[in-house]
Design a protein that fits this description.
Blueprint (H helix, E strand, L loop, with lengths): L10 H6 L3 H17 L4 E5 L2 E6 L2 E8 L4 E4 L14 E3 L2 E4 L7 H18 L16
Antiparallel strand pairs: 1-2, 2-3, 3-4, 4-6, 5-6
Helix pairs in contact: 2-3
Length: 135
């Protein structure tokens, strides 16, 4: 994808540049992530479609010549569930023919959200009501 004259600037443009099988696989993954994290915000960063939760990166998705992938630090405890996939510290590679199980995607996203909430607790929103100072 690096040979392109115009680089994508959003998820839809990114997906449109992929072969149909990869488009379909990543669109399903995108929908699974949005279902697991309805408060996450979709954005485009590091040249990949991604999601932020509480203003912090949650996960990214992308494609390579022979696989598609879910990117982001993989929470501990998923080794057995991911044993049939190529996994590194920050990537799970899979193919359109053998997608990640929906329950695993949901569990990873929920675990990542919990990590973000623990590491960066949501700050209470400031009240917009003005104090009058009268007693």
């Amino acid at each position: 994808m690096r040979d392109l004259a115009k680089k994508p600037t959003n998820t839809d443009e990114y997906l449109a540049l992929l072969p149909a099988e990869q488009q379909k696989a990543l669109q399903k993954l995108r929908e699974q992530i949005m279902a697991a994290a309805p408060k996450a915000v979709e954005y485009f960063g590091y040249g990949l479609p991604g999601f932020k939760y509480n203003d912090h990166p949650l996960v990214y998705l992308g494609a390579a010549k022979k696989h598609v992938a879910l990117y982001g630090m993989i929470p501990p405890g998923f080794g057995e569930k991911l044993k049939d996939f190529t996994v590194s510290k920050g990537t799970i590679q899979f193919t359109p023919e053998k997608p990640l199980p929906v329950a695993v995607v949901k569990a990873i996203v929920k675990a990542k959200m919990a990590e973000i909430e623990l590491r960066w607790p949501a700050k209470p929103k400031k009240s917009s009501a003005k104090k009058t100072g009268k007693k």
